[in-house]
Design brief:
The structure is a homodimer of 278-residue chains. Chain A is of the alpha+beta class. The first copy, chain A, folds into two domains: 113 residues, Aminotransferase class 4, branched-chain amino acid transferase, N-terminal domain (D-amino Acid Aminotransferase, Chain A, domain 1, 2-Layer Sandwich); 154 residues, D-amino Acid Aminotransferase, subunit A, domain 2 (D-amino Acid Aminotransferase, Chain A, domain 2, Alpha-Beta Barrel), CATH 3.20.10. In chain A, 24% of the residues lie in helices and 31% in strands. The two termini of chain A are 33 Å apart. Chains A and B meet through helix 1, strand 4, strand 5 and helix 5 of A and helix 1, strand 4, strand 5 and helix 5 of B.
Chain lengths: 278, 278
């Protein structure tokens, strides 16, 4: 049982969300999930840059980095949070309250929410030999106007996550309707073929994470060239090595997808080390 | 300026929503919008039936009709709401709070929210000669597992609604990615060709409303046969008459879409009358 997460809304620990918030009624907002150490977010510049870009993509002006940083500092004053431990922070920006109907308010007052939770537990075996994936039956829909954005419309991920209850399954692999690999429900994916590292094109669906970006930038250190491309499942399954990545665990190797199995290799570990020291 | 809507959460006027509600973080929930008179919902059995079906489609057990009716009665005790006037009620059911992550809670405690707002104002000209539509550039995405459901992932509608600011435009016509007409941002559509009434198939995208269902049932009274089918824009634009429908205004004729214009006819008025006395 995890400790109940702590949150702060618009810099005020006593503020609440009303059911008139467009984040609730329409999923009209964006978010980021990141690690914190000692209450401060790791890789903040990249997260903030992506938050600003995602806000802009749905026509929102992101609150300033100073305001958001102030929220982190406020939460640090709470008992139990002022430690050097790792934790998870989620920053949510919604379009705030509006009148009834889809029309966006003439003057928008975004709501900003910071939620801090304890780090999830990752089994030692995930670091050592990798993770097992479920191949999701649900196929991601194509919406170019929202692709890549980490917005609050995540019902597809919820529905996909309902496909398995086995705790041994780490995540689910999501395809588009043409059998191309896109991502996992909570991670981006890379497939290595020799010294080529391929990662799915996310211009039609999927969420583009900052750890994916960082891996793209770091690949040259491992003498890998990176290609963002369409990646049919059939080709993906022939990869020499597959890894998942996100801001919480860094990188994990994929050990099995259905009956296919990959033996233990070094790529995920190498990227974890690079990400930790970047 | 509309009066601020009143709401009640889980039957408690003082309860609030926390940022841990899955309705906010994932859009993990469903809703209905309906008219009320004297505080009581109109066409409640159909709305409740659809709410139950939509909940089931995302793996939720809908709260009982008795509980929801109790919420309406509670709000009636509020000053200003106890009148015989028409108002708008929105019922939202979310999957409630959960731990971090997409995995649904082992034990789900849905949150139910009832929001009552004043009726929107519809211009006399809309009743008399019809409404003008914008043809949306945004194309609806295809997700068969969510099609037809009135869920809280409505960012496509928000983005589509951002395409126009002209108050003379009543709604936007939404197509899928193959140029088939699906719906408007806040209404379903019908196209009449002679004595045939066509309405788009919503099994791949779109929201199926109860007024659409009611019109399908009532069409025989007007000697119309109804067909649910794929409806390419090109064909749609050749209709003798086009109407929009939803639970708030009943039915309105479409007067213009881009440079195409339809002269005033009787279909929308006939359905409004039938819907009012059904």
């Amino acid at each position: 049982m995890q400790a109940r997460p702590t949150y702060i809304i618009n810099g005020d620990l006593s503020q609440t969300i009303t059911p008139l918030d467009r984040g609730l009624v329409y999923g009209d907002g964006v978010f980021r999930t990141m690690q914190t150490r000692g209450g401060m977010p790791l890789n903040w510049p990249l997260h903030y840059q992506k938050l600003v870009a995602d806000c802009a993509a749905i026509g929102l002006v992101c609150p300033s980095a100073e305001l958001l940083m102030h929220d982190f500092l406020q939460l640090l004053l709470e008992p139990d949070l002022n430690s050097n431990q790792l934790a998870v922070a989620k920053v949510i920006i919604t379009r705030g309250e509006g009148e009834r109907g889809y029309k966006t308010p003439a003057v928008t007052c975004p709501n900003r929410i910071l939620i801090v939770s304890s780090m999830p537990f990752y089994a030692e075996v995930n670091y050592a030999t990798g993770v097992d994936l479920h191949l999701c039956e649900l196929r991601l829909s194509v919406q170019e106007k929202l692709a890549g954005i980490k917005h609050l419309n995540r019902l597809e991920n919820v529905m996909a996550r309902m496909e398995w209850r086995d705790d041994g399954v780490f995540d689910g692999l999501l395809l588009d309707q043409q059998d191309n690999v896109i991502e996992c429900t909570m991670a981006n994916v890379f497939a290595r073929f020799g010294n080529q590292l391929l990662t799915p094109d996310l211009s039609r669906c999927g969420v583009s994470g900052i750890t994916r970006e960082r891996i793209v930038s770091l690949a040259a250190v491992l003498n890998l060239s990176v290609q963002v491309c369409q990646l049919p499942l059939k080709r993906f399954m022939q990869a020499d090595e597959i890894i998942l990545c996100n801001s919480l665990f860094g990188a994990f190797q994929v050990r099995t997808i259905k009956s296919s199995r990959w033996s233990q290799q070094a790529l995920a570990k190498n990227f974890r080390d690079l990400l930790a020291h970047d």
